[in-house]
Amino acid sequence: MYSELQVPYTSTLRCFSRANIAYIDDTASASAVPPPTSAPALIQGPGESTVTRQVRKATRKQLTMQEKISIIEMFASGISLRAIGSTFGRSHQVIARVVARWRERQTLARAPTSGRPRKTSPQSDRMLMRMIMADRFTASTDIEALDVFKKVSIRTIGRRIRESGEFKSYWAARKPFLRPVNKTKRLAWCKARVNWSAEQWLSVLWSDESPYTLRFKAKRRVWRRHNERYDKKCIVHTVKHDMKINVWGCFAGHGVGSITRVMGNMDQHQYMSILEHEMLPSARNLFGSGPWSFQQDNDPKHTAINTRNWLTEHKVSLLEWPAQSPDLNPIENLWSILDQRCAKRSPNNEEELVEALQEEWYNLPVDMLTKLACSMPRRCQAVIDAEGGMTKY
Questions:
Q1: Separation of alpha carbons 274 and 269, rounded Å
Q2: Could you give the number of structural domains in the chain?
Q3: How high does pLDDT run on average in the chain?
Q4: Residue 112 CA: distances (Å) to CA of 98, 115, 116, 117, 163
Q5: Is residue 139 exposed (0-12), middle (13-18) or buried (19+ Cβ within 10 Å)?
Q6: Residue span of the structural domain in which 67 resides
Q7: Which end of the chain is more exposed for a tag (fewer CB within 10 A), N or C?
């Protein structure tokens, strides 16, 4: 331990009271540090201004206890102050202060400082972290209500949690609830296909439905002055009941298929009409006479008896699909990209929205579609790593 170190006292200690800095002449080194006649200037690198040096110095972290112990050990072995400073990326004055503090007080701990003492103790800080580990949704108001933290503000509780370096407060991600049986099916599905080749994934025709509103609902950032929050140039207008349409679309890794509007609430009969007039022509155009398979989720209209009979009669090879698995369908990412592209066009009515969706859909770059289709091995591996749970996709 550092308390048992024998630091040589052959060096002469000089203190420069004006700058409150201890300078040490190391007799073991080739050159000695002369006593200053004025406050020491900041050490500057090549082309570095004094202001830059001050900013860099202010943002530097304090030496850890282990680093201080290593400094004393190195000094005791006869290494010069400048050499030690180069090792730790500090000036020789900083190293000199560490050695002087050890000689004067026989301790490397920081001296007590002025200011208000902490409201929490190390024990209460550890208790706080155990509560967060046990329940990640614990509210600061619930913690404040405990007897241990009654004299601590909500802001202080938040600071203590952030000081740990492990946790910060985020909005919780929203994902579909998965029953154990669905997790098992998802895991089995991904294990059976995680080693599929890119050619196999590129031969899948992906499909889905998605709603779109006339006004883009995602949060948007704006450049404004502090008093312009409600300025008309800086606000996003909303309506109580926005106009919404539903569309069906399909794509493969080398091109998009059809996109068509869904009229009202789609039932099995409208869906079979879409399969016949939109899906089949898209498959012929994208795959020709080559092999392909069709992906659809487990919506009741997709799994209805009439729909299954139609797919069998038309000899459509259906890709088995696990329930509650939107994160496995790459078309979900495509819907989000399409939404962002349409938002830039700012459609004013229903017809303009449909026109914007169709134009942006057929202008989607092929390399983007290929990347989405070829992301399936990573998606499968993510589900396997999550043991059938939800993933980031």
A1: 9
A2: 3
A3: 81
A4: 16, 10, 12, 10, 20
A5: exposed
A6: 2-105
A7: N
Query: Helix-strand-coil percent breakdown of the chain, rounded to 5?
Result: 45, 10, 45
Distance CA 361, CA 107 (A): 70
Nearest to 43 by CA among 99, 81, 11: 81
Beta strands in 263-388 (DSSP E): 293-294
Q: Which pLDDT belongs to residue 215?
A: 65
> What letter represents residue 288's amino acid?
G
φ and ψ at 213, to 5 degrees? -105, 160
Torsion angle of alpha carbons 364, 369, 372, 376, nearest 10°? Answer: 150
For range 39-62, the mean pLDDT: 46
- My answer on whether 224 and 79 are in the same domain is no
For residue 216, what pLDDT band results from cuts at 50, 70 and 90?
Answer: low
Note whether residue 26 is domain-resident. Answer: yes
180-193 and 376-385 helices cross at what angle (nearest 10)? Answer: 140
Give dist(CA 46, CA 55) in Å, integer.
16
pLDDT confidence bin for 143, thresholds 50/70/90: confident
Evaluate whether residue 360 is within a structural domain: yes
Q: Are residues 76 and 188 in the same domain?
A: no
Do 215 and 311 belong together in one domain?
yes
Q: What angle do CA 282, 287, 293 make, to 5 degrees?
A: 85
Position 363 pLDDT exceeds 90: yes
Write down the pLDDT at residue 184.
Answer: 94
Q: Judge whether 169 lies within some domain.
A: no
**Residues 373, 192 contacting (CB under 8 angstroms):** no
